[in-house]
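Form P-L/3: holo structure prediction, ligand 4'-deoxy-4'-aminopyridoxal-5'-phosphate.
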Amino acid sequence: IDWDAAGGWHDARVHAYGPLSLDPAAAVLHYGQEIFEGIKAYRHADGSIWTFRPRANGERLQRSAARLALPQLPVDEFVESLRQLVAVDHEWVPSAAETSLYFRPFMIATEAFLGVRAAQAAAYHVIASPAGAYFANGVSPVSIWLSQEYARAAKGGTGAAKCGGNYAASLLPQLEARAQGCSQVLFLDPVEGKYLEELGGMNVFLVYADGRIVTPELSGSILDGITRHSILQLARDRGLQVEERKVSLDEWRDGVASGEIVEAFACGTAAVITPIGELKGKDLSIGDANAPAGEVTMAIRKELTDIQYGRLPDRHGWLVRLR
Ligand code: PMP
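OUTPUT (holo model):
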């Protein structure tokens, strides 16, 4: 769907996958005026295809657009764009458990000019790709790497928006994590470098022995994850006490040492929930890479995926049928 300041949104269309045509002076190429979303569709046993809380993604795209000075796409149009794509995709037939169709909606500034200002023309696209099971050989705990040198977002910056620039900032720390045998990088808050923020592409949770579930509050520099929000709800439903607040690295280290913190996990659309075995850093090791996945972690993971795949009733009305 194209947008320009004079005419608003126009020319919604579905066409065959192929390269985009962009003017070399398009604002997106120079100033990173770009936002995106990640959302999946799941095929249920009866063949119907459903997506999970798409309005929440549409609303987050609107908040990202506001921060990046891009136009507001109506949430109904966002959901309709997923529906239209699924309507023409006849080839996607998931074969194994936990496969899905991953959507990547994105919006870019297309106006061609070289001064620095908000573009007056933009385009919204969605592409889709079948996604295999995130854990092909069963869910197993991952090791993550603490970035002590870099932050992914600044105070007052774009950390709460889902824009390409945040991910650009996380690529080098991510390389560092890989070199240390870790699959993801954990960032601390950009002001004091003391409190947990999130992983490169996931939110983070700690589970306490007394049944509390704690996750860093929405600090203004982390993404308001839809999986995070859903997990908080499922945990409350189970009668667990949930806390959204500042969590320091010291609290995690001391809590694991004293036995007060018994599980850690990360969450996001791609992996749903990933148990965290160990947090590694320069002169730092919290947890045990070889410990089994935590019970609470796996119980919530199972419940959430069962809802997504239609194996449990959708009691919160989270699923929206696409086909
Ligand atoms: N934080 C970051 C930086 C992410 O990229 C993602 C993935 N979108 C998340 C958290 C988790 O968000 P969600 O649960 O909406 O996928």
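COMMENT: The domain at 2-131 is CATH 3.30.470.10 (D-amino Acid Aminotransferase; Chain A, domain 1).
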